[in-house]
User: Which sequence fits this backbone?
């Protein structure tokens, strides 16, 4: 088996999930310069809402992608409502406060959501029911599963869709204008509060899809799953250049691939001194490296096409 | 009587007793204006007289501490800037504030945003009505760029445009909101005589299209030649108001601009 190719495939799949979550970070940052640390928790809620729906349907004996799709369709509005609520309650009142205040508020929301989820879904790892046959395909000495292919397809479409909305629609134009200069956008008749809410809406919708896909892919969900996932996606956004859409996508894919190559090779390269479980360390070392050597990220020229 | 021809019924914007303080400094003090519909109305005064502050109050950036203002009989005193824009006042800036990373036509289309009904759902679903609207927006934006004379630069990134073209682009962007009142903050700043003359003709064309203009300008020649009426601010107070020819000879205006004679 070709370990390199296999790890690249796994990395791209994992990375595309990071990218989807990273889009939410980067869009919100682009428009209000806030790192929405509660975003990972929105993904978690999406995964667990989806899990509840899928579990119920699986119990009735339903199987197949339709079940997952319904899980996603329930998770999306749930997460959108949650995202809007977070923005309204935790961030909007602090719009004119010093920058530290909304950041602390974000961390508070994050903890509150984790504990709330623990109350609803319990503290144990929950298993995503097996509703998919998940056949495997062989390509050049590596294996790619149907779930992986679907994840790559869906994330690809969503990323492209996000780009189209931001670059080609009136809403996207208003977003970019608000990101560049909110007060002038307001003077040109753009209701900036509504645009910010739309940004949260879009980010949360993407987070919901990411949540259910993560659950389906790894097979488990838990009230703490949003933490590490959120941190990785944030790393991906910074890696690509926070505020840049392409940056988030590129950063996510790159982070996924590097992490998985690390997992594949660290152990053999160091004769077992450093195990494959150090791949997280590799990810965050990269974050530190980017922050030191290229703080604006790979795609982040100052003030490029941010939103 | 000259004043009598401007009864309040033909006034587009009426401001009454506007006051704005910053700490102990009174930037605007009891400023009352009545801008006749369809006119070009000049606002002049020495630096720091409060002209831009008045613009900021009228466009909702600052909230007036005192006084009220209304457009077409509708009070705007407590409106947000995007609401004021929707109700019919659009502006440009003394120091150009375009969306620098967007193309010229995109800048104008942002101004058009307020006259469209596109929501997030429409944007996601790309509804046919959305596309028609988008197409209409592009057409209108291009018309406006042609109107101000920079149609050939539609797809250039705004910050790469020459300075004078950036000023015109700001005017096109403001016009895209379909304003009743167009407020221009020193549109001729930094322009040479030829460019200023072209600008004067553009403003005349805008007036003829039925848009009332409120103009802050330092170029006295431009103001006197173009404006139907002129108001003069000094230290936040209105010291003169009337036809340009009368205002020009007002002793208080001469004193404000040239200083009082030492007696």
Assistant:
């Amino acid at each position: 088996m070709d370990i390199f190719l296999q790890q690249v495939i796994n990395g791209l799949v994992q990375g595309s999930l990071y990218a989807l979550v990273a889009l939410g970070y980067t869009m919100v940052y682009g428009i209000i310069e806030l790192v929405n640390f509660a975003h990972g928790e929105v993904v978690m809620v999406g995964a667990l809402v989806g899990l509840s729906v899928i579990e119920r349907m699986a119990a009735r004996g339903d199987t197949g992608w339709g079940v997952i799709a319904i899980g996603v369709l329930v998770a999306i509005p749930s997460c959108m409502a949650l995202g809007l609520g977070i923005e309204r309650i935790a961030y909007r009142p602090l719009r004119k406060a010093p920058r530290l205040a909304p950041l602390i508020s974000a961390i508070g929301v994050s903890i509150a959501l984790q504990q709330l989820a623990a109350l609803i879904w319990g503290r144990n790892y929950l298993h995503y029911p097996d509703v998919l046959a998940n056949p495997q395909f062989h390509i050049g000495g590596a294996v790619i599963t149907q779930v992986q292919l679907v994840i790559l397809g869906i994330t690809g479409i969503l990323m492209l869709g996000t780009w189209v909305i931001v670059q080609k629609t009136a809403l996207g134009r208003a977003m970019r204008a608000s990101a560049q200069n909110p007060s002038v956008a307001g003077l040109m008749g753009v209701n900036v509060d509504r645009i910010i809410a739309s940004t949260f809406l879009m980010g949360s919708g993407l987070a919901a899809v990411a949540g259910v896909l993560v659950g389906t892919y790894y097979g488990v969900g838990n009230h703490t799953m949003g933490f590490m996932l959120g941190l990785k996606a944030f790393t991906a956004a910074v890696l690509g250049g926070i505020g840049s859409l392409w940056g988030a996508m590129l950063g996510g894919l790159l982070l996924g691939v590097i992490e998985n190559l690390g997992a594949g090779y660290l152990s053999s390269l160091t004769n077992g001194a450093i195990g494959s479980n150090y791949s997280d360390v590799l990810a965050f070392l990269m974050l530190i490296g980017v922050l030191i050597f290229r703080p604006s990220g790979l795609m982040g020229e100052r003030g490029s096409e941010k939103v | 009587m000259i004043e009598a021809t401007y009864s309040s019924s033909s006034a587009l914007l009426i401001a009454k007793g506007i006051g704005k303080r910053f700490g102990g400094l009174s930037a605007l003090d009891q400023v009352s204006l009545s801008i006749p519909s369809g006119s070009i109305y000049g606002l002049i005064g020495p630096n720091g007289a409060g002209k831009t502050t008045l613009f900021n109050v009228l466009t909702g950036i600052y909230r007036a501490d005192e006084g009220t203002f209304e457009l077409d009989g509708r009070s705007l005193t407590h409106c947000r800037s995007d609401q004021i824009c929707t109700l019919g006042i659009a502006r440009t800036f003394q120091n150009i504030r375009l969306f620098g990373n967007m193309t010229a036509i995109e800048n104008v289309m942002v101004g058009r945003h307020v006259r469209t009904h596109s929501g997030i759902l429409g944007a996601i679903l790309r509804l046919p009505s959305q596309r028609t609207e988008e197409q209409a927006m592009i057409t209108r934006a291009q018309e406006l760029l042609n109107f101000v004379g920079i149609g050939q630069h539609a797809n250039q990134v705004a910050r790469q445009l020459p300075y004078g073209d950036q000023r015109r682009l700001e005017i096109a962007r403001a016009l895209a909101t379909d304003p009743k009142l167009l407020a221009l903050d020193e549109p001729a700043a930094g322009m040479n005589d030829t460019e200023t003359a072209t600008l004067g003709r553009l403003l005349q064309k805008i007036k003829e299209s039925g848009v009332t203009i409120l103009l802050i300008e330092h170029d006295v020649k431009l103001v006197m030649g173009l404006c139907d009426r002129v108001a003069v601010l000094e230290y936040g107070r209105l010291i003169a108001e009337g036809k340009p020819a009368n205002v020009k000879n007002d002793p208080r205006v001469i004193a404000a601009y040239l200083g009082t004679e030492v007696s």
